[in-house]
Amino acid sequence: MTTPSETAVLREPSARDNGGDLDFDDPALYRQLVDCVADYSIILLRVDGRVASWNEGARRIKGYAPHEILGRSFEVFYPPEAVAAGFPKRELETAERDGRFEDEDWRVRKDGSRFWANVVVTALHDAQGRLVGFGKVTRDLTARRRTEEQARQLAAEQAARAEAARRSEELQRINQQLESALADTQAARDNAERSAAAAEEAYRELDQFAYVASHDLKAPLRGIGSLAQWIQDDIGDSLSGDSAEHMRLLQGRVHRMQALIDGVLAYSRAGRSLTTPVPVDSGVLVQEAVELLAPPPEVRITWARDMPGLRAERVPLQQVFMNLIGNAIKYARAARPDVLVEVGWRDLGDAYEFSVRDNGPGIAQEYQERIWGIFQTLAPRDKVEGTGIGLSVVKKIVESRGGRVSLESEPGQGATFRFTWPKVPREAAA
């Protein structure tokens, strides 16, 4: 839409008003009209953007007297950042290309103050269609913008008050719900504290029972073992055939019973008490576990040379490695002479995953969940000596620290046991 001020600049005088004495073809008349407009800055720009004319509205809005601005670039009306971005030149380029450019943005007065302006730039051409300059009409809309901002601020404040009122009502409702539930919560807390105290007492009694039971059971077992050894020492080589085999089975089962008692005691305590985490080199921990297991020469155990360091409870983590490596050695040796056990790892982001792989007989899919239970073994105990407790202890230790255990295996393809260990110890995370 063309504003009245634009019409004043661009209109070609081509008609007469025969109803009066004014000569409407006189260019001076239009010059007088433009000069006296005070609400609009109406100026002419040369093709290169220099100011060619100046009216009263331009002086009032922008602050320059004619002799201060004529011949200067119109870029002085723009903030420095707009000039640096090349915005004034793009205005003229757009007007030349499209015939017209309109914009609302900040402009600058002579004194450096800024005002919000509506600007219309129109390309001017001569009779041959050549570009001869631009007409530029500017209106100061600062008061309107200020009013609009005040209206928006008022609307925002009203919306904020309404939201505050709504939230206040919601908080009152929630507070009433919390107060009504407080008695139940307190009762539940009291029950939980009583349950925790009862559980703690039960654990103490269980520890005491496990210790006493293991002591009372081990005493006669030690006696049986001693008697069997004395008999063997007395008779010596006189034992032969079935008697020698029976003596071997007797001594083996005494040892198994002692290991079973130790295993039950270890299982009862696994995962129950947390120790202080310390910096641990998992590679050194695996090496120490292998040294403690003292495998025979035909067993080869390897582990990654870049095993990670972490903060962990040293003894429980070492117990997990010992149980898994010992389990791999035991079952692989029962199936083949050339045993290979490989310990690896990978970084899961918030935890490390460790793996223990063997080349043993493997485990069928239908038995893979069963092996994690206490007293569960897949081979006859007279063929593969074991209590069936080692893997259940592994599972209990790992899960009590926030990790998980898993198994990958196929019959005849060996087995890979995996477990995860959080990088941040559970006590620290809590």
Quick take:
The chain is an alpha+beta fold and 430 residues long. The protein contains 12 helices and 11 strands.
The percentage helix is 40-55%
Distance between the termini: 68 Å
Average predicted local confidence, pLDDT: 81
User: What's the order of the H and E elements?
Assistant: HHEHHHHEEEHHEHEEHEEHEEH
| Computed CA radius of gyration, to the nearest angstrom | 47 Å
Biggest β-sheet strands, sense, barrel: 5 strands, mixed
The parts where pLDDT drops under 50 for at least 5 residues are 1-20, 379-385
- What structural class is derived from the secondary structure elements? alpha+beta
Q: Tell me the strand percentage band.
A: 15-25%
Q: Tell me the strand order in the biggest sheet.
A: 6-8-9-11-10
Query: How many DSSP E strands?
Result: 11
> Shape from CA axes?
elongated
Number of helices: 12
Describe the structure.
- The protein is an alpha+beta fold and 430 residues long.
- Helix content is 50%, strand content 19%.
- It is built from twelve helices and eleven strands.
- The protein has helices spanning 4-10, 27-36, 56-62, 66-69, 80-84, 87-98, 142-235, 242-269, 282-293, 314-333, 390-400, 426-429, and strands at 40-45, 100-108, 114-125, 131-140, 278-281, 299-303, 309-312, 339-347, 351-358, 405-409, 415-422.
- The strands form three sheets. A five-stranded mixed sheet has the order 6-8-9-11-10. Strands 1-4-3-2 form a four-stranded antiparallel sheet, sandwiched between helices. A two-stranded antiparallel ribbon has the order 5-7.
- A hairpin with a 5-residue loop joins β10 and β11.
- α7 runs antiparallel to α8 (242-269), α9 crosses α10 (314-333) and α10 runs antiparallel to α11.
- It is elongated.
- Mean pLDDT is 81; it is low at 1-20 and 379-385.
